[in-house]
Design goal:
Distance between the termini: 53 Å
Strand content: 5-15%
Shape: globular
Number of helices: 13
Helix content: 40-55%
CATH class of the largest domain: Alpha Beta
Number of strands: 11
Structural class: alpha/beta
Number of domains: 2
């Protein structure tokens, strides 16, 4: 509680406490040791498959419609790519309908999807509550729904009615993002957090990041920047320039609920003469789109990201539908968090862990 109270005054850098020291012993030895161990695990690239190894054989002749929030979102597009890849292996047809990012467009796309009477529909990156009439129509028609980032938690959902929701755990993503800062800084950091508080999921993620950072006495939250994602391209450069003026030496690290903030921040850092390799050292707590990997690998104002295994999640969606069609429960699998840096990404532009293709092929008999 004391940590939470201490953070309540940190909106947009209102704290006037002394800047954290970047030398000497860390400010939280036990927390720092735990963070180092967690980050070391998360940075491993050659990990063993921990997902399902048993399940029903492939059901034939099915059609899946993927309703996308917008295909300009790299995360949504990456999952759609994985879905198509897996569908070719299992022998199904896939159709993608782009909602275009607007409420009206998403509702129209869902309406079109239901009218096609497919075997299943994917809720691709939007709140099912925004299409409640279409979701009800799908239920009445007996069409199972599988979500991707559709609700906050992974797994089956009764309200809204989803056979399952495929996503990483927001608690894990938030936690490892904060632990990366604690470990990377040696327990001494001045942090700026970028979020979109208008989105409940994003606000919860940023609140969890704040709480985890507060477990280290040597980490100070300099500013909590609430910038709605639609305004990020116009507002982020101005806010970053202001923050650099206010905290020229104290600002050592940043964390954002989505990598895109650092794409928009880069011009302001560059104009201020900051080196692309930091400080501030920046980590994105979400998605891990190709542009984020490009910034990380080229040392351009981003040091790390906590990426979603997008292609793998597309394969998982196919497997979850196959379980639904076979009258079996959802797999319950949740992908573990991973931290990608220039040191472990080997020049890749996405996080594509090993083992899942072979595992799903064995399950399906393909």
């Amino acid at each position: 509680m004391a940590a939470a109270v201490a953070l309540t005054g940190c909106q947009r850098g209102s704290s006037n406490a002394p800047a954290p020291s970047t030398t000497g012993p860390g400010g939280c030895p036990a927390v720092q040791a735990e963070a180092r161990a967690a980050v070391a695990r998360a940075e491993q690239s050659e990990t063993a498959w921990t997902g399902p190894t048993t399940g029903p054989s492939a059901v034939s002749g099915r059609t899946i419609v993927f309703v996308a929030q917008t295909m300009t979102n790299p995360g949504v597009a990456g999952v759609a790519h994985g879905l198509r890849e897996a569908a070719r292996v299992i022998g199904w047809q896939v159709r993608v309908i782009d909602g275009g990012g607007s409420p009206a467009g998403i509702q129209a796309a869902m309406g079109e999807a239901v009218a096609l009477r497919p075997s299943g529909i994917v809720i691709g990156g939007f709140d099912p509550g925004s299409t409640s009439q279409q979701v009800a129509a799908a239920g009445a028609a007996g069409i199972p729904l599988v979500g991707w980032h559709a609700v906050a938690a992974p797994g089956p959902s009764r309200r809204p009615p989803l056979f399952t929701n495929v996503t990483t755990r927001v608690e894990d993503v938030a936690g490892i993002s904060a632990q990366w800062i604690i470990a990377h800084s040696g327990g001494r950091a001045g942090v700026v957090l970028f979020t979109d508080a208008s989105v409940p999921f994003a606000k919860r993620k940023s609140d969890l990041i704040r709480a985890k950072l507060a477990t280290c006495a040597g980490v100070r939250l300099l500013a909590y920047e609430n910038i709605p994602i639609p305004d990020a391209s116009s507002r982020t450069p101005r806010e970053v320039a202001s923050l650099l003026a206010r905290f020229p030496g104290a600002w050592t690290h940043s964390v954002a609920i989505n990598d895109l903030y650092f794409a928009d921040a880069a011009p302001a850092f560059r104009a201020a003469g900051r080196k692309g390799t930091g400080p501030p050292f920046n980590i994105g707590a979400g998605d891990g789109d190709p542009s984020a990997f490009q910034r990380i690998n080229s040392g351009q104002y981003q040091s790390a990201t906590v990426p979603e295994p997008l292609t793998q999640q597309g394969w998982q969606i196919v497997d979850e539908f196959n379980r639904a069609f076979s009258g079996r429960p959802a797999s319950g699998y949740v992908a573990p968090t991973h931290v990608s840096t220039a040191a472990n990404s080997a020049g890749a532009t996405s996080w594509d862990p090993p083992g899942y293709r072979e595992a799903y092929r064995r399950i399906w008999g393909r």
